[in-house]
Automatic annotation (TrEMBL):
GO cellular component: dendrite; plasma membrane; postsynapse
Compartments where found: Secreted, Extracellular space, Extracellular matrix
SMART domains with a match to the protein in the record: LRR_TYP, LRRCT
Chief localization: secreted
Gene3D superfamilies: Ribonuclease Inhibitor (3.80.10.10)
Segments forming domain LRRCT: 337-383
Gene source species: Moschus moschiferus
Designated name of the protein: Nyctalopin
Amino acid sequence: MKSCRMLNLLLHAMVLGLPSARAAEDTCVNACPAACVCSSVERRCSVRCDRAGLQRVPAEFPCEAASIDLDRNGLRFLGERAFGTLPSLRRLSLRHNNLSFITPGAFKGLPRLAELSLAHNGDLRYLHARTFTALGRLSRLDLTVCRLFSVPERLLAELPALRELAAFDNLFRRVPGALRGLANLTHAHLERSRIEAVASSSLLGLRRLRSLSLQGNRVRAVHGGAFRDCSALEHLLLNDNLLAALPADAFLGLRRLRTLNLGGNALGRVVRAWFAELAELELLYLDRNRIAFVEEGAFQNLTGLLALHLNGNHLTVLAWAAFQPGFFLGRLFLFRNPWRCDCRLEWLRDWMESFGRTADVPCASPGSVAGLDLRQVAFGRSSEGFCMDPDELNLTASSPGPSPEPAATTVSRFSSLLSKLLAPRAPVTEAANTTKEGPVNTSLSDSLPSLGVGGSGHKTPFLVGSGLLLSMAQHVLFVLQMD
């Protein structure tokens, strides 16, 4: 297809006195490839060749085609000027084919192409630096699931109008250097591409970038100031990576950021410096980490925050000082944490009752309230007006006076000792037998029958002494019991 017949058709329509729109519609249908379906909607010619079993690109397309769909075929190779000259083409989709090589210049002759999708061509793996030559108006490029190991530095330099790049599910290991300097790029989707770090030079020159997705990678490190050139960034997704720590200036320069997702990492603490410049932040995800500590004032600059996700961490306490001063919060998600519901969470319970913007805060400790929701915990006041923890309240309620346990222990020990003193001495042979049979449990009441009047006269002094000891013992026991 080396020439376009559109001009001749328009002239023919003028001569015959027919509307040019009707002529364009007829041309779209009449020049349609045999395996495709063509239609004109609102004066735009659409060509659908999806699922047609094609092994090569059709030789001709309608000259006025604005959209061509070649999805789910068996295309393996694109030669130079694979689509001829199509001056009206704005959208071209080659998803789910078997493309393994694209000749440099394959898309020449498509001067107005704005959207190009090469997604789900798993055998592609490599793109020549001049693959997209002459696509000066391309604004959206989809390279999803192409198993690309890298993107040549100059590949995207040929695309000055590029605004959106979708390149997730690839094998990059690092943020493609080809992104640097793309002054008009606004959206970059790089999730699930095995990226291991965001270097300080990875995103230079992306001054109009508004959304960056790096979720589901293997990012272990974000260098300080890595986003400093991304002053227009509004949405940053770093969730489901391997981050265990972040530098204090990790988000330096992101004054317009509205969404920050750090969920599903290995962070152990929240540092105040991270959010120092994020005054416009509305959504903050810190869920599914290992956070056990939140620095004082960590969220104090986030005065416009609508939702904070801290669920699925190791938090036992969350201080009000993390939010002050003048903090307003729309929703707070705190479930799946081992909360200790003591006086340090009284502010949270009051906040929950006043605003009702959080729920599901189950107490893990102390034992007196374990299993209860924080809303159900009652905090009392001491006579001085100080908050009392639930375990202290329970102790006070069940034991208003001193515990009798020490006195009871003293009485029992004294009784045991007195029993031994009052017990008659057994002969040596009996003592030996008693030792063999095991110790005999004796008490004051058990020994009294052996002290009865009667019997041999040689026991009389013993009985007199025993009477005195018994009187003393009863007096001591009475005093101990009264105490």
